[in-house]
């Protein structure tokens, strides 16, 4: 076994431990990703669902500051320039949404998805070339 084979096997084991059970269709996509020349391609957001420890950590994040920051920091909430307010309109809002929207999708959390900042700009930020 050479170093490359060892590392490839180790990466697969680490991913399996972190992600828990992965559906067969996603496993097939990951295995076959290299066959079309795109071994490092992105999977669509929400294609892999967290389970176990990772899911619990994301729930803690959603229940904590990560899921409620807009409720007490006006720069990413009601006063955000990204949402039509007269507050900061450079990077705070997009960085917040860049974490909030994927968190909402991964957890299937409708409360987070319905937040004005996530529903109005989340898909655009995530799908933009710099997202």
How would you describe this protein?
The structure is a single chain. This protein has 131 residues and is mainly α. Helices cover 60% and strands 0% of the residues. It contains seven helices and no strands. Helix 5 packs across helix 7. It is globular. The termini are far apart. Residues 13-19 have low confidence and may be disordered.
Give the topology.
Elements: H1 3-19, H2 24-32, H3 52-63, H4 65-72, H5 92-107, H6 110-113, H7 116-127
Helix pairs in contact: 3-5, 5-7
Mean pLDDT: 74
Q: Class by helix and strand content?
A: mainly alpha
Low-confidence stretches: 13-19
* Helix residue percentage: 55-70%
What pattern of helices and strands is seen along the backbone?
Answer: HHHHHHH
Large-scale geometry:
globular
Summarize the structure.
The protein contains 7 helices and no strands.
What labels describe this entry?
131 residues, mainly alpha, globular
